[in-house]
Write a structure and sequence with these properties.
With about 160 residues, the chain is an all-alpha fold. The chain contains four helices and no strands. The longest helix has about 55 residues.
């Protein structure tokens, strides 16, 4: 196990995790902005529908159709914005970032499973201690990836 290659693998793993989080942050930011625009447009539509109802009671079929049509158009735009926000997915970017993360995770596992110790890892470290630490580190890495999969599955539901 070369300490330098282990450090590079760990650094690559951390960068890939940051990349995945950055992509997800950008997508969720876009979704929030689209939903905020939809809510604002819907509120404007509701105001115009209220104006239309008010004018409808005051005079029959006068200048009612204009605010009514504008209000309905605002509601349709709000619905389109919500639909577009619901279907935003970072498929290609996120798949590449997750593939890089999984590759880095496997590299870290491979480095820990490597039988040779070089690069001044720990000068008096017994092989038995490495055999004790190896399953712990591997289980931590696996549990982190399983936790992310579970969180993603819960997010879809």
């Amino acid at each position: 196990m070369n300490m330098q290659s282990l450090a590079e693998s760990a650094r690559l793993y951390a960068r890939s995790e940051a990349l995945v989080l950055d992509i997800l942050f950008r997508v969720y930011t876009r979704k929030i902005i689209a939903i905020a625009i939809a809510i604002l447009t819907g509120a404007v539509g509701l105001v115009f529908l209220n104006f239309a109802a008010y004018f409808a009671l005051q005079t029959i079929w006068g200048p009612i159709w204009t605010p009514l049509a504008i209000g309905l158009a605002n509601f349709m735009m709000a619905g389109l914005a919500i639909l577009s926000a619901a279907f935003m997915n970072p498929k290609a970017e996120l798949a590449l970032a997750k593939e890089l993360r999984d590759s880095a995770s496997q590299a870290v596992e491979h480095e820990f499973r490597s039988p040779t110790i070089s690069g001044g890892w720990a000068t008096g470290l017994d092989a038995n201690l490495i055999n004790l630490l190896l399953p712990i580190v591997i289980s931590i890495v696996r549990s982190l990836s399983q936790h992310k999969r579970a969180a993603k599955a819960a997010e879809k539901n």
